Amino acid sequence: MLAFENQNIEFKQEYVTDIRKEVMGFANAEGGTVYVGVRKDGAVLGINDPDGVMLQIVNSLKDSLAPDIMPFVRVNTVEIEEKQVIEIDVTTGTNRPYYLREKGLKPSGVYVRKGSSTQPMTEEGIREMIFQNSGRSFEQCRSMNQELTFHTLRTEMQRRSIEIGPSQMRTLKLIGEDGLYTNLAFLLSDQCETTTKVALFQGTDKELFRDRKEFKGSILKQLEDVYQFIDLINKTKATFSGLDRTDRRDYPEEAVRESLLNSIVHRDYSFSGSNLVNVYEDRIEFVSLGGLVSGLELKSIFLGVSQSRNPNLAAVFYRMRLIESYGTGIGKIERAYKAFPFRPEFETAKGVFRVTLPNRNEEKESEGQVLENTGGDISLNEQKQLIVQYAQENGSVTRKEVEDLIGAGTTKAFRLLKELCEAGKLEQKGRGKLSAYLIK
Q1: How many CB atoms lie within 10 A of CB 73?
Q2: What is residue 370's DSSP assignment?
Q3: Dihedral (CA of 351, 357, 363, 364) sign
Q4: Which of 108, 222, 282, 286 could cross-link to 215 by cystine, CB 3.0-4.6 Å?
Q5: Pair 237, 295 in one domain
Q6: Are 410 and 399 in contact (CB under 8 A)?
Q7: What pLDDT was estimated at residue 365?
Q8: Per the UniProt record, which residue ranges are transmembrane (predicted)?
Q9: CA distance 180 to 372
Q10: Is the link from the previous residue into 71 a cis peptide, with omega within 30 of 0?
Q11: Is 0.70 topped by the overall pTM?
Q12: 370: pLDDT confidence band, cut at 50, 70 and 90?
């Protein structure tokens, strides 16, 4: 009788298809041995047709497990207590995690040995094992989803007259040395799980929310869809000098384009969060996860230093002529605001990088400044006095009434009411459009 099962030993009374999970579990952990022909309590029963069973085992492992696990498996017949037993000796694999082909890189398809049992891995555990055992960046690691389609990628490549067959996908690092799709392929595929969320706010903070949209699919599709959405809300203001008319959009198109590209190309996709675009009345914020690449400081990027976190993704975008060269995006954003008094802002914190584009057509007002749309004779302080007086005489005041009272737009009316509340002169009752402001 043999010893009981443990971290490195598993008993099977006879051949069953689940043997492949035990072998995988050992290869994904510290190795071990599976004995076929031994009962769970260690009693040796033997195998009647060891050659036939060994052939079943070998074929099952070859056909059902990926990547190829056979270099780390040795199947032999050994004699124990004068009976024929099959010994499957497994060493730790170098291409972990190994998984069931029909299930893929997901908890139902990846098993690991823990104690005396073989257990499914969590998604976090699978990602960590891929990263640890690849020694490569996230974009180079094996994709957990191998059932990928590339309709958007092929359409965009064809539009640019770029061939995109299997050989090109290998060259572009969408297919790894093991013949499997990489995370780069996953990002460019129609199944990409990373999304971009765009939020529109009324005013200059997040107190009043107007709209939210989430863009999905290939990051190429998200890039196009998000840019088109921002383009729709990027208003144009006309100014006149004599008979000459000048049209100026709220945000320079090139600055929007470069900020959006920056948030997609340089983010850390090992984080599961979405790309974020926050649109206020006076600015747009592009927020991407990951912060700066380790070793770089914010001032480094203004010196022209560029170290891409996703060089293979940047190479694909470069080939598609979406970017010209590395490290030029920040300069383009700054040049787009060269003749404008308010400059773009670039901020970094742990795990986050943010680009803020100011609205070129949004007037920056101070307390004593006279407003153009009130005929040039009513200052902000005087407007606030009118609002307070109106609330005293009528019991309350609404934002719409403020707009009519002082001839201001929605944003300015809301801002004045908020400042009066912060000064302790008014008190808000209700939320959103139903809000009323009372004397405090």
Answers
A1: 21
A2: B
A3: positive
A4: 222
A5: yes
A6: yes
A7: 47
A8: none
A9: 63
A10: no
A11: no
A12: very low
> How high is the pLDDT of residue 75?
94
Structural domain ending residue among the three candidates 134, 155, 180: 134
Distance of alpha carbon 101 from alpha carbon 109, whole angstroms: 8
Q: Are residues 30 and 113 in the same domain?
A: yes
Consecutive H or E run containing 153? helix 151-159
Task: Say how far apart CA 403 and CA 416 lie, in whole Å.
Answer: 10
State the helix-helix crossing angle for 399-406 and 380-394, rounded to 10 degrees. Answer: 130
- Looking at residue 302, its pLDDT comes to 63
Using one digit for the tens of pLDDT, what is the confidence trace for 387-401?
988 888 888 899 888
Instruction: Give the domain extent around 379.
Output: 372-439
Element (H, E) at 431: none
Are 98 and 73 within 8 A, CB to CB?
no
Q: Round to whole Å and give the CA distance between 99 and 106.
A: 8
Q: Residue 163: what residue type?
A: E
Task: Report helix, strand or coil for 434.
Answer: helix
Specify if 367 maps to a domain: no
For residue range 270-303, what is the model confidence (pLDDT) as tens digits? 887 899 999 999 999 999 988 776 656 666 666 6
